[in-house]
Amino acid sequence: MFSDSVKRFYADHLIPNMQRFDTDGMVDRDFWKKAGEIGIMGGSVPEEYEGSGGSYGFDSIALYEQGKLGDGSWGYGIQSIVIHYLIKYGSCEQKSYWLPQLVSGEAIGALAMTEPGCGSDVQSIQTQAEKKGNHYLINGSKTFITNGGSADLIILTTKTEASKGAQGVSLILVDTRELEGFRRGPRMNKLGQRGNDTAELFFDNVMVPRTNLLGEEEGQGFYQLMKQLPWERLLIGITALGTIDFALEQTISYVQERKAFGKRLMDLQNTRFKLAEAKTQAELLRTFVNDCIQRIENNELDAATASMVKYWGSETQNQIINECLQLHGGYGYMLDYPIARLYADSRVQMIYGGSNEIMKELIARSIDN
What we know:
Shape: globular
Order of helices and strands: HHHHHHEEEEEEEHEEHHHH
Number of strands: 9
CATH superfamily of the largest domain: Butyryl-CoA Dehydrogenase, subunit A, domain 3
Oligomer: single chain
Number of helices: 11
CATH architecture of the largest domain: Up-down Bundle
Radius of gyration: 21 Å
């Protein structure tokens, strides 16, 4: 029932606006609120915070169906990540204040880790939060932040004790609305996912209450990140699967109609073999993704397995979409065809959420221990 509801919503409100979102460089507030009205973002949120009280499976459906429409603009994935940080580590006051706003679409969330001088190396971040009475004084900058251009709530990765390395990292909730000293850079001119307002963020003597600390004490940020990264990496795998299914659907339809040398492209052995290979890879990934969803619902998804599904899912996604574009011939290079947009949107999947090189290193460490 939830899947049917999500599909109808996307058909009515996402598909007709995808091109406009790309042109505008952002998904408008009205769409977020409409998504909130039908409960897309509250599937796994407890009922006491105006959610549906379900599991990660609800988030998985919403993410998969978005990918299956070929959309890479709406930043619901990050919204889901922010929600789960709050569910896991937020105080009663933080959850009561923020979760209903995130579920309804009244507030948009972002997770700010990456900095201009460091990507996956969280221990090397330079952004600092200095204690000033009952407040933190925050200085620093972040880059490549999904939803950064519109986020009302930012979970900020910062150093509260610079001398302690990973033990000095904390997460702080930053309400950006009318916040003095906070500013956003221009929306980034990206290769793909152009409808998402990815931006740089700057914190110049920003003051936030110390009650905005996420968790019971300082220095827990690195631990919190490591515990929540499996969901972030799994959702990249889920999105990859949805996008693959869409790419195959589009390509099969094209080669069944397009003719060359007097016959359908689908009748050529090369086409049939390429699609057979892609379909097999998709089904293998589907099995792995479903297994990982079950694991995370059972609180059993470890970092190494999450790294595998992120790495393998995004690599498979890019490999299949590359083959699908090739089967479209010259038309595949035209943005009038969805496969061209998928090609551009998919490339970043191997970079964000931890680059695939980092994923391989994490997997290797689990083998070597």
